[in-house]
Amino acid sequence: MIIDKLKNAQNYYALGENFKKAFEYLKNNDLSMLKNGRYEIDGENIFVSVQDYETKQPEEGRWEAHRKYADIQFLIKGTEQLGYTDVDALRPETSYNEKDDIIFLNGSGQFAKAQTDDFLVFFPQDAHMPCICIEQPEYVKKAVVKIKLN
Length: 150
Known about the structure:
The protein contains one helix and twelve strands, in the order βαβββββββββββ. The protein is mainly β. It has one domain (2-148): Sandwich (Jelly Rolls), CATH 2.60.120. It has a six-stranded antiparallel β-sheet with strand order 1-10-5-12-3-2, with helices on one face. A three-stranded antiparallel β-sheet has the order 4-8-7, with no helix packed on it. It has a three-stranded antiparallel β-sheet with strand order 9-6-11, with no helix packed on it.
């Protein structure tokens, strides 16, 4: 798991060309103007989902993990907590859904606070619980970039 500010994104270009393309997209587009939905950056290799929501209490959250894609979760507006832990520290709640590249899990982990212009990168070994409020629910607009791993 990585957490940083978008202004430092060039430090992570060494993760590969797809990460560089994803960070360049985040840096060079006014994401606050995008409507909720999916936007392709490089077909199924790199795409972004823009979403807005009210954050929720930790007991309402769900742990999730992916196998085919890494996530870059970028906060366009707002503040939230995101849970993270090693996927092997959790127990499966559901079977892995290959079509949607997701498995839901049970257990516990740590939380990181993120605010406007922060991003977090989650790899397949990083189970995560997004959309969690810090104290009270608040409005968040976020872009989740999915980067296909080879």
